[in-house]
Specification:
With 140 residues, the protein is an alpha+beta fold. The protein has a single domain, classed as Thiol Ester Dehydrase, Chain A (Roll), CATH 3.10.129.10. It has 3 helices and 6 strands, in the order βααβββββα. Strands 1, 2, 3, 4, 5 and 6 form a 6-stranded antiparallel β-sheet that branches. β4 and β5 form a beta hairpin. The chain starts with a strand and ends in a 9-residue tail after the last helix.
Length: 140
């Protein structure tokens, strides 16, 4: 199995809270950044999605905080899609320090919304296959 897609991020001082560790909401920003970076690397843009009348939606997100992050820490944020054949997919993400310490694990359930009908499309994997220049980044 290949390594999951990942992007580097450096924790910025303004993202920390009064205790000096990364604010809990910023973990979601890092996860979202990695997901959009994966889409971009696979050849899918926001414009490409909206021109097809679809857009990704988050339906559920769980964050498991493991170790604190401090300003200046360098991390890798991974992103791996799992397809179940229905209207939704799962995204497993890990935020890991360069020394291998896991800071957080994020599991998200998502879908592809038909922007006109305001309903999830039946096969989001097929949408990604159609739009992506490199669908292998999604495990397809």
């Amino acid at each position: 199995m290949t390594e999951p897609f990942s992007v580097p991020v450096t924790v910025r001082g303004y993202e920390t809270d009064v205790q000096g560790h990364l604010n809990q909401a910023v973990y979601l920003n890092y996860a979202e950044h990695a997901r959009w970076a994966l889409l971009h690397s696979a050849g899918i843009s926001q414009t490409g999605l909206t021109s097809k009348g679809v857009g990704p939606v988050a339906l559920e997100t769980t964050i498991r905080y493991k170790n604190e992050l401090l300003a200046g820490d360098e991390v890798e944020v991974t992103c791996a899609f799992t397809w179940g054949g229905g209207k939704t997919f799962t995204i497993e993400q890990t935020i890991r320090k360069t020394d291998g310490t896991v800071a957080a694990e994020i599991t998200a359930v998502g879908g592809i919304l038909n922007l006109q009908e305001r309903r999830l499309v039946a096969r989001p994997d097929e949408v990604f296959k159609e739009l992506a220049s490199d669908p292998s980044l999604f495990g397809l």
